[in-house]
Amino acid sequence: MRLSMRLWPRSLMGQMLLAVAVVLLLAQAISAGLLWRAAEARREAAVMNAAAFSLVVRSQPREERGDRRPRAMERGDAERWVRALRIERVPAFAPLPGDVEDADRTATLRSLVESHGMVVDDMIVVERPLARDPYVDGRPRLRARLLRSNGPDRRLVVAALRQPGEDHWVVARVPLPSPQRGVLGSILVQTLVIYALLVGLHFLLLRRITGPLAALTTRTEKFARTQNADGQLEPRGPHDVRRLISAHNAMEARIAALLDEKDVMLGAIGHDLKTPLAALRVRIESVEDESERQKMAAGIEDITRSLDDILSLARVGRASEPPERVDLAALTAAVVEEFEDMGDPVTLGPTVRTALPVYITWLRRGLRNLIANAVRYGGEAEVSLLREGERVILRVDDRGPGIAPDRIADMLEPFTRGEASRNRATGGAGLGLTLARAIAEQHDGELVLANREEGGLRGEIRLPTG
Length: 466
Fold this sequence. Notes:
Helix content: 40-55%
Order of helices and strands: HHHHEEHEHHEEHHHEHEEHEEHEE
Low-confidence stretches: 62-84, 420-427
Number of helices: 13
Strand order of the largest sheet: 1-5-4-3-2
Shape: rod-shaped
Mean pLDDT: 80
Number of strands: 12
Oligomer: single chain
């Protein structure tokens, strides 16, 4: 199954060309079979006509022969074969050991002979190797000439006829001609010409269709990464493909406009909310009760962080700058060092030096969220950078209680917390893992959460290297 999948082309052009080639090959194989059967039928008819010509014409006295010949018989090969082997008259005829009697040939030859007024009392038609025929074997010069011109493997059709009232048999011998090799050669040449014309024409037609589709695919992938409507494709190709490109351009423009409107709206919301929060933060300084003041400040900071997470989640994927190639090992070590400087129990595990083009600010944010989540709910975090096949893995392990298996998928949804104890008192609005997942998907990767066998939760940002 895997081998067949590897051999099957993945592109539309490859599949269409392969389908045309296979259908053409089957059609040519059927045509070759029919032509071969027709050639064999003509070959058999020539042998039967030659035998009938010998029996009807050559077996009669010379003065009675005239130009009598079976109507289906043409001069040429048949007469050349007959001149090589004269008619033999024998008192009795019986097949030799090893001869193959042919009832179909007997019936055909009888019909040909009787259609020309010759009455048949008995007839036997056999096939034998040319070298084993007694008539040929008793004539060394004839045998040498026939073997030289026909080859040692050539076979003879021997036809013996007896007419009513005759006490002798008339025996005719016709060498079987070799199969026509020219048929296969002509079919091969015909196939090559048809392949060159038909497959070449299909290639040009499919390229006119698949070229714009390939460009549209590339454009769609680029728009999915950047959400930037600049550089849209010019409609080209067949009418249907041009309509598809035009519709895609219109959809891109509409999506980009909606995203721009969303950014403007979110910016306005952020500004309108942060301004009164900042004013409120100033006003609480006048509260004399230190405990109440700290609670108010913590609440304001919590709202501010939640607002930042919401705005970040809305902006992820709308990077204004192209990705930069960076050493992920150095980036990982720098993020771990930030937590160490704040006194958090975060350690750096094994890393491999790997350089990839990434959105540095966003990837750093996603890794921070995973580490912060591990420290908050697991008490400590170990960060490592691994490479498995065609993927690079940013792994964060903690030693906390983990997550119930049936809730792991829910933890990646916005505003979801793992358990009742994970409330605002512990910090966060349930957007950290959602934002980390969005950042991983922005890099064509994925975020995977799993419980460790030794206890704790493992979070991985898996990025493709290709």
